[in-house]
Amino acid sequence: MKYVLQGILYLVLSFIIIFLIQYFELYPLEMNIQNILIIFVVLLVLRLLFFIFTKVFKLFIFLFVFLPLVGLIIYVVYMYATGQDIQWFNIGWFL
After folding, report:
1. Does the pLDDT of residue 86 top 70, yes or no?
2. Would you state the torsion angle of the CA atoms of residues 43, 49, 52, 58, taken in this order, to the nearest 10 degrees?
3. Is 36 exposed, middle or buried (0-12, 13-18, 19+ CB in 10 A)?
4. What sign does the dihedral 41-42-44-49 (CA atoms) show?
5. With contact defined as beta carbons under 8 Å apart, do 39 and 12 qualify?
């Protein structure tokens, strides 16, 4: 039932998109079944890509932001606790 309602919503959105394209004269697009189905498929593909990229983005944030920050915090706390100097990265060679 959920997917049927989503399909109906995407069909309605397809009609609305074509109507708005015609209303604002952005492109000479006709209101026929082929264009409606093309926009319907494009909306489904965009929804699928959004779902995939949000899952991958969460993994990306965890791997490349959260874990390095935790490692940096552990490093700073360890160096502070042992009384050693913190060796920050020297990027002078890069500049």
Report:
1. yes
2. -110
3. middle
4. positive
5. no
